[in-house]
User: Which sequence fits this backbone?
């Protein structure tokens, strides 16, 4: 899989796929979008993503999310997603925020 390739090449350290919203009976072009969450630990571009996001840049080097989006397009599935930075450790001081994960929330729907 794409995520396994990213992990094998050490682009990400590990990943998790959350399919709690998946119900195959509703996965159709006429149905509501289906949500998937992908969590990537320590992507190689994390610091660049944080810097560019902090500067308000419209471009972020989110290669894992873009690769997944391209894969879904090749499979005739429309997708849109948003990426969020996650600090896995609670820190009471917001200035100590140190994200180590990227959570990509995808909305998927088959193309007619």
Assistant:
């Amino acid at each position: 899989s794409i995520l396994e390739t990213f992990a094998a090449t050490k682009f990400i350290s590990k990943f998790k796929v959350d399919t709690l919203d998946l119900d195959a009976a509703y996965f159709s072009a006429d149905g509501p979008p289906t949500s998937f969450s992908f969590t990537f630990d320590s992507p190689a571009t994390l610091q660049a993503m944080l810097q560019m996001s902090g500067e308000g840049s419209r471009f972020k080097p989110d290669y894992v999310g873009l690769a997944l989006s391209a894969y879904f397009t090749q499979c005739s599935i429309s997708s849109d997603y948003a990426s969020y930075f996650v600090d896995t450790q609670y820190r009471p001081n917001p200035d100590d925020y140190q994200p180590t994960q990227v959570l990509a929330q995808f909305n998927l729907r088959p193309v007619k």
Q: What stands out?
A: The CA atoms of residues 87 and 93 lie 12 Å apart.
